Amino acid sequence: MLASQTVIKKGLQETGRRMTKTRQAVLVLLERTRQPLSAAEICDQLHEEKVSIDLVTVYRTLHVLKELGLIVQLDLHQEGQSRYEMKAGRQHHHHIRCQDCGRIVDLLLCPLKKITKLIEQRTQFIVDDHTLEFTGLCPKCQ
Amino acid sequence: MLASQTVIKKGLQETGRRMTKTRQAVLVLLERTRQPLSAAEICDQLHEEKVSIDLVTVYRTLHVLKELGLIVQLDLHQEGQSRYEMKAGRQHHHHIRCQDCGRIVDLLLCPLKKITKLIEQRTQFIVDDHTLEFTGLCPKCQ
DNA sequence: ATGTTATTTGCAATTGAATTGCAATAAGGT
DNA sequence: ACCTTATTGCAATTCAATTGCAAATAACAT
Question: Is the CB of B125 less than 8 angstroms away from the CB of A134?
Fold first, then answer.
């Protein structure tokens, strides 16, 4: 078991939850996959690896992992399904998606710190979060 | 009929389409509504105004209006449904949504011009579009 | 005005993502 | 190893959105 897994197990137990084979399988897959994955993709990939898991369980696992703050849910524009990626140990970032082939690339930047303060001043909202996504054509699809 | 409606009618006819009562009703509603509306909300509102329209027709109308570039489709994070707002005559902008009451406020700014160029250099993508949304607590819900 | 034709509409049925109920299964403390 | 409680899998359901098709209607010609 990876070191991060021990931390995660603790996090689960502190909220009266258990570390199970399926949760571990989902975690390991998310940890080693670069692209953000949908629930269906996670399910399919695990089946290919001969891990027995139901799509419902994938959804429930993702829900728990999100609640523990271990993963991030992405609702990319016009994708019609959510994608998920590990949060632990990674810096806050955004994405760009190719509208042709669907490839998603990480953008290791966030230009919104100053803007957030400006928005709080202007709107009197307390800003909690933001989503930012770019779409376009990747080098291969141009 | 509003002046903008004539322009829209022309746009429809140029693509072999027709200006109908229902399309006009959806347009008029979108033109006078400040909040971005969902298809269901448009349908309900029109029913309250004694306009007979089916939800399917609303979806199809929105599809056409979007294709003509007259409206913008918003897929707000975790809303589970798209919202639409008029594009014609309005400057490009983004939104902030209250996570408590759901209120959506326009942000009349876009801080992404320079960033877009940087991203194109770094990723070799040709950037076509972006989505940006903030969430937080509005003054009333704090 | 009237008729013709292609577009649009409404209804029913369907799709696809995500959720819920419930009995069977498995984790973890004793 | 046992017992309690969380978790899983399956079936059924929800909800947004789409599709097929016959009936209605807009645009155009006569």
Answer: yes
Is the CB of residue A107 less than 8 Å from the CB of residue B123? yes
Q: Is A112 on the interface with B (CB under 8 A)?
A: yes
Q: Quickly tell me which residue has 């291969």 as its tokens.
A: A140
How distant is C1' of C13 from CA of A92, in Å? 44
Name the residue with the least CA to C1' distance from nucleotide C26: A20
Structure tokens at A139: 């080098």
Distance CA B107, CA A71 (A): 28
Whether this model's pTM surpasses 0.90: yes
Q: Give B58-117 pLDDT, tens digit per residue.
A: 999 999 999 999 999 999 999 999 999 999 888 999 999 999 999 999 999 999 999 999
- For the CA of B57 and the C1' of D14, the distance in angstroms is 22
Exposed (0-12), middle (13-18) or buried (19+): which is A98, by Cβ within 10 Å? buried
Give the pLDDT confidence of A17-27 residue by residue, as tens digits. Answer: 999 999 999 99
Q: CA of B138: which chain A residue's CA is closest?
A: A125
Give the separation between CA A133 and CA B129, rounded to whole angstroms: 9
Q: What's the CA gap between B133 and A77, in Å, rounded?
A: 11
With contact defined as beta carbons under 8 Å apart, do A9 and A20 qualify? no
